[in-house]
Amino acid sequence: MRIDIITIFPKMFEPVLRESIIKRAQSKGKVKIYLHNLRDYTLDKHRKVDDRPFGGGCGMVMSAEPIFRAVEDIKSKSKSKKLKAVLLCPQGERLTQKINKRLAKYKHLILICGHYEGVDERVRRYLVDEEISIGDYVLTGGELPAMVLVDALVRLLPGVLGDKNSLNFESFEGNLLEYPQYTRPSEFRDMRVPEVLLSGDHKKIEEWRRQESLKRTRQRRPDLL
Ligand code: 9D3
Hints:
Elements: E1 2-7, H1 14-17, H2 20-27, E2 32-37, E3 50-51, E4 61-62, H3 64-77, E5 83-94, H4 97-103, E6 108-113, H5 121-126, E7 130-133, H6 143-154, H7 165-168, E8 187-188, E9 191-192, H8 202-220
Parallel strand pairs: 1-2, 1-6, 5-6, 5-7
Antiparallel strand pairs: 3-4, 8-9
The site of ligand 9D3 has 16 residues, from strand 5.
């Protein structure tokens, strides 16, 4: 998969992309991530990416021109037919694991990070294929949401996670929250690991885990049941 990210803060991404599984996926050639500074696509000498809203009001709106130029430049160089341009913005569809799985099938994604009070509507209407939000809280821009999306997508790409098992049984897909987990020692500061987990009785352990998962899901996320 190829991911192009259009942002006014490309440096925000570097430390995140340089670590952990995303880094490993890149060195294994499973994903190629390219950062583009939106200001490089401006035509004026001040490299302005925003302007005042028509009709008045406070705040600034991201201009259409640099975003169109950036996306068109990336598209014109793309060899991929399966390409999608995604705008990260508060009005987008809420990101879910279902959306991640669908987007993970694309060969080429262009992520556009929104900012300020919004983006010129013509970007949404005529340029972007999809709009995504990561949840109902207010951030300062689409950069962190783009990183969230990249992280969620990269781990779904074939060959990125070592063990296939860890992908199948997931909470938020299997519809149950995880059961309580423990590791050594079996007693830590007077706190004991539940006896059943030390019993060696795999049938009983499986049953206990399922009950605990159900209990926790009922308590914390009844919406999942
Ligand atoms: C004045 C109304 N605001 C909308 C709720 C304006 C506004 C706030 C924050 C416009 C842009 C932003 C910056 N946030 C994003 O670009 C963003 C975002 C978010 O704030 N929350 C969750 N997901 C996302 S994806 C992009």
